[in-house]
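Weekly structure sync, notes
Attendees: PL (lead), two postdocs, one rotation student
Agenda item 3: pending single-chain targets
PL asked that the sequence for the first pending target be pasted directly into the notes so everyone works from the same version. It is reproduced below exactly as submitted, 493 residues in total.
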Amino acid sequence: MTADRSLTALTIAEARDGLKARRFSALELAEAHIARMEESRALNAFITETPDAARKAAAESDRRLAAGEGRPLEGVPLGIKDLFCTEGTMTTAASKILDGFVPPYESTVTRNLWNAGAVMLGKTNLDEFAMGSSNTTSRFGPVENPWRRKGDNRPLVPGGSSGGSAAAVAAGLCPGATATDTGGSIRQPAAFCGVVGLKPTYGRCSRRGIVAFASSLDQAGPIARTVRDAAILLTSMSGFDAGDSTSVDRSVPDFEAACARPVKGLRVGIPREYRIDGMNPRIDALWRDGVARLRDAGMEPVDISLPHTRYALPVYYVLAPAEASSNLARYDGVRYGFRAEGADLRDMYEETRGQGFGAEVRRRVLIGTYVLSAGYYDAYYLKAQKVRTLIARDFEEAFKAVDVILTPTTPGAAFAIGEKQDDPISMYLNDVFTVPASLAGLPGISVPAGLDSDGLPLGLQLIGRSFDEETVLAVARALEDRAAFSLTTLGTA
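Predicted structure, written out during the meeting:
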């Protein structure tokens, strides 16, 4: 079966409107994307494909559309990051330790999407337990970025941890996908793959039913081809959940309508601390171009300071592993998932965790256990929490003078698979621009804004006030319009 490229090239907005107008059926749309997934398995973007379930859901969507009962996302096919529990469909978090785990419940975010009429194509690949910036730590193998450097066919990383979702959207396997962001895991892969990635305010989307990494940082969000598509998905993904103590009880705005808001007269902050030593000249030029484009849209650039930015990465790599150490203690081989044999109970625990967790997960669990241990808690974990408060306070002060903040998303473009495998510090530096907003719980979006000298996509990041995704989306749309980036330049695998 050959994919109908006229259908797999549609944005979510185009697919939604075409379905409503009955220009094609939900089943035809699903079949086109299923065929595209089959053609592109070399990318390894999906862990579990669900074509039969997609066909069944699409047929139900066609029935609803014919009866005039279409819901906001009726018949729109999506990829779901394999960190979201899906009732009756295996959920692995890309880890051996969750082998064979089939949840008897649905995550709140995916349930919201199904209630809106969306169709699941399958579960996308990720770094194991969302720990990574390259999507090479998955038990199921690395995901390949559909982009290639000019004159170099070596496979590139798609970024992580939501690399499967970003690669799938960029390659036309699905028009949109769910993702999660702990320190940049939506925005960084979106930048590497030339798509849009939106991390909403912490508490905007429920965390219930999402496999936990770092509970005070994890937040669900969409990856899509356009800012408008990201807004459409976020509207359906959001909402208060009484079953999640971190969910915030606020009304859900019309995020799609917010994209059309005028931005003239708004002030955009340019933080001087983000001009790091040895900054890639192409990234610096892209950033300056972004400032010029927003000025052209009628916005006023303002130099600002975020003085504690330099501490963000060290703080993150104390707090996130500490929370991971606590969250991953539940995987003991007793109740579900993988279990290794052992001479006694303790031996079984040790063998299960030693064999079930990959190297990066074990590294972070060990770091986290160390910083929480007696004698080190105050020196590391407690101090990191105090500095986190200072980082959040920097943003509060900045937003007294500006409406949004513009920064690069990543320090460079996608790199070759295996290129930084043995250098965890270099790998962690991929999150240098995204981690501060995560620590402060603020909304951030990556918008594709240009290509580097090798023809690879680069992104710019916009950060907004807490629960002000509407302004972020309006400015992002203005930036997107002026950047005029197009996935049509992508030669997919």
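Discussion points:
- The longest strand covers residues 444-451.
- Residues 313-385 form one domain.
Action: rotation student to compare against the earlier draft before next sync.
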